[in-house]
Design a protein that fits this description.
Two copies of one chain form a homodimer.
Chain A lengths: L14 H19 L1 E3 H8 L3 H13 L3 E3 L13 E4 L5 E7 L3 E8 L4 E8 L5 H22 L7 E8 L16 H5 L2 H9 L3 E5 H12 L8 E6 L3 E7 L2 E2 L14 E4 L2 E4 L6 H8 L8 H10 L3 H25 L3 E6 L3 H11 L17 E6 L3 H15 L3 H4 L5
Parallel strand pairs in A: 4-7, 7-8, 9-14, 14-15
Antiparallel strand pairs in A: 1-3, 2-3, 4-5, 5-6, 9-10, 10-11, 12-13
Helix pairs in contact in A: 1-3, 2-3, 4-6, 7-12, 9-11, 10-11
The first copy, chain A, binds a DNA duplex through helix 1 and helix 3.
Chain lengths: 401, 401
DNA sequence: CTTATTAAGTCAAATGTCTTGACTTAATTA
DNA sequence: TAATTAAGTCAAGACATTTGACTTAATAAG
């Protein structure tokens, strides 16, 4: 009956795929350009005026776009610009970190409407899952308080946590949150919330956030170097987040550096974890963030020494990212205190020579991105929004989620 | 009239895009699985039997697929498998190297039908262009001799040459083929041949070849580490060659390594160029390839020393590729003599620990790929074939070339 | 002030591609 | 010999985009 080997093939598409894509293209165009008339959209997407009119009408019925006042610009009938309706969709984002978990609710344009956090006691995932589910429930009810009907327009739950995922662990590496790696988190959250759950590592989440509302807005090729408790790269390639074969692409923190005859992962040299170790600080201390900001501002010797050393590794990381990914720009972001990020950026320059030194370059090679403890949770929430509304190859194909 | 800033948007799609994609999906499925019945194709692509029938009929009319003898496999009407017709399409591939240029003609399934080469005297691009155009013309006429009607089915001219492209040059770096970088090669070849011209760097071409007929066949996430006169990585991400924002993604040869207090590009340490320098050999010597193969086989001390040193850098390169791209597998390929490649692979193992060490891994982390002086030209030719027949996001969209 | 021109947007019919459901064909199994 | 299973076809239907003519509403020109 069944032939020996399974048949491997890509999926076909049909009318639904076509119109789904065209709807996404409209939303994307409005997101990038702000507000556009039907005629503008038709020209930009190469679709006909009539098609655009049909789709816009449908999007308006669905509450995703709305018209603005007509504008007169020269001869001809005035055009009616359309814009995205922020309340058209919502998503909840969740950052699971070592000691805390943060949740936000965002709208279609990426504005944060609700934020809340909870401590993660060392009870491990099974206890932690309860805390997390309560936190999500709390954010959902607060969101409902801010905007009615939000539940109907909730497109999913995005989760960000440190990677890598599914790797044969070294057994006792405290940097890897081993217990969480083995826990069936996505299944638990799906069952516990009834929402579609989208998991990414925190660097990817940071990149997703930068693409929706930050420095990567409208860019199709950008890499976010994320410096948090760990370090990683979030990859925007061809206009989509690139995850790799197993969701671990960009885990640059695992890259081994050779110096002084031994090899060390980048993560042990240039990350907040390494800074905490350098300062003998307790990562669980809730005031640590503020204190490090103050220390950075006051020119603390310990901080400066770490910054100098980390800058060398970051400079090289950026060089490597430019060399391998050839992005339009590299964005330095993180959950580090702002003053520290500023010091880092100052210390990183000048950049190493690379293929990024092109004639006619427009964007800077390195740009600062968000450095806010909440940016990862925001990026987590941006995941489901992007999944639901951004133009993606997979979204055209049949049977794609 | 014109609004201030141009509107940026992705393109929409329509019926033509749909059917173009579905045709490509069929061809792709046949390429990967060998031969499939209409019912198999319908199941694999999630399209209906009827749609598949219509498309197969059309592909058969176009001479791209043909039916095989019906096979009985259990109850029910016997199925009629369809396969790709090799003579359904052809492409010419061109490798432009420092001292020679090679051209091949391949068919739809990637078989090389004609090969020819010519020396590139140091006269520079303007003289070289004439040699190249003559070579292409020669290959085309030989192809016409082998198969009639080939010109009608010629989908394009693929060109591979060392990158990077468009980078603000260091002025006098002999490794960069500076003069060729400035020459309007694509325009000249388009005008001189009347064909669509597709340019990629040689590592990308090697990856394209591996994907069509080599170790990356059917894989959606694979990286080819190409060791030739230079060194580079060809990236297959999400089933397509990834080129980066400027066509320079994967140029790992430009990566700077720090050791002994100074920085050196990887290309100066692990490439045939570095080997030639190590051996004080003349790269222009036509017998060099064979001689190095012999030296490698005979256990030459100089070769072995270079292999040991290069293996360290290659081991690290593979580690870095695994860490940043998270591919299903890494393929080591090149235009190096086979005996040398074998030595290198032996010397590279064991690999460094990385996120590629997963539970339930199926493919090996490192696989040997093609190591044939003609593989780059083959990959160059595979470019237009892939462009014309592989499922690609861009091919669905309107006005896409 | 009137008319021509330009551009946005709508209407209704046509087109193209996939889908649906019934049907035919041809094998194996009971 | 009849029932079952599966491949493949036929004809009608569904759906989204396209086409071309038309309406609306502004500015520019005479």
């Amino acid at each position: 009956m069944n032939d020996s080997r399974p048949i491997r093939a890509k999926r076909g598409t049909n009318h639904e795929g076509t119109s789904a894509h065209n709807r996404r293209v409209m939303i994307d165009a409005l997101r990038i350009n702000g507000a556009l008339s039907r005629a503008d959209l038709a020209r930009a997407t190469r679709l006909t005026k009539q098609t655009v009119s049909n789709i816009i009408e449908e999007l308006e019925r669905d509450g995703l776009v709305s018209s603005q006042e007509a504008v007169r610009k020269g001869r001809g009938q005035p055009s009616t610009p359309y814009r995205l309706v922020p309340e058209g969709a919502f998503a909840v984002g969740l950052q699971i970190d070592r000691h805390v978990t943060r949740a936000v609710a965002v709208d279609l344009v990426g504005s944060v409407l609700v934020r809340d956090e909870a401590g993660l006691s060392p009870g491990g995932p099974s206890q932690g899952a309860k805390v997390i589910l309560d936190l999500v429930a709390s954010v959902r009810s607060k969101l409902a308080g801010v905007v009615g009907q939000s539940e109907k327009r909730l497109v999913g739950l995005g989760v960000a946590m440190p990677g890598p995922f599914g790797v044969a662990g070294s057994g006792d590496d405290p940097w890897m949150m081993e217990a969480w790696q083995k826990f069936p988190l996505v299944e638990t959250l799906t069952a516990g919330t009834g929402l579609d759950v989208d998991l990414q590592n925190d660097a990817a989440a940071a990149a997703t956030a930068e693409r929706m509302v930050g420095a990567a807005h409208g860019l199709d090729h950008a890499v976010c170097l994320f410096v948090g408790y760990g370090i990683g790269a979030g990859l925007i390639l061809n206009g989509e987040l690139y995850r790799g074969a197993n969701g671990n692409a960009g885990e640059i923190g695992m890259a081994l550096l050779f110096a002084d005859g031994k090899s060390t992962p980048l993560e042990h040299r240039a990350s907040l974890a390494s800074l905490y170790q350098h300062l003998s600080a307790d990562p669980a201390d809730p005031d640590l963030h503020a204190r490090i900001n103050d220390l950075a501002l006051s020119g603390d010797r310990g901080i400066d020494a770490w910054v100098e050393a980390a800058a060398v590794d970051l400079r090289w990381s950026i060089h490597l990212i430019e060399t391998l990914f050839d992005p339009q720009t590299v964005i330095l972001c993180g959950s580090a205190p702002e003053a520290l990020v500023n010091k880092l950026i100052a210390a990183i320059g000048p950049l190493l020579p690379s293929i990024a030194e092109r004639r006619g370059r427009i964007l800077p090679r390195l740009q600062p991105g968000m450095a806010d403890p909440w940016s990862v949770a925001l990026g987590a929430a941006a995941g489901p929004i992007s999944h639901a509304f951004d133009p993606r190859f997979a979204a055209i194909l049949k049977d794609s989620l």
